[in-house]
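Practice problem: predict the structure.
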Amino acid sequence: MRDDFCPWNTGHHRLQAEAGFAVCERTTAPEDLRLTPAELGAAFLGGPALAGLAAAGLVEDLRPGALALASTAFRGEREPWYPGGWAFPLY
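Answer:
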């Protein structure tokens, strides 16, 4: 991952999840996906799926199958929903 805003985050990270717990740690292993914190944050916060971001050319699948697995892992049982819509009142 390349992070121009917080360069100390640049590097390879491994995300592992099991039994309801997740761990993210630095690694020297080759990348499975290439993306920036913007795409990772969007998927984590319930925005576009990683597969959709890849279709837009923003995520690169470097190991066949990694994109499908990660895209599924970042989706919840329900889509995020905000009852007030996305417009906020200006007072």
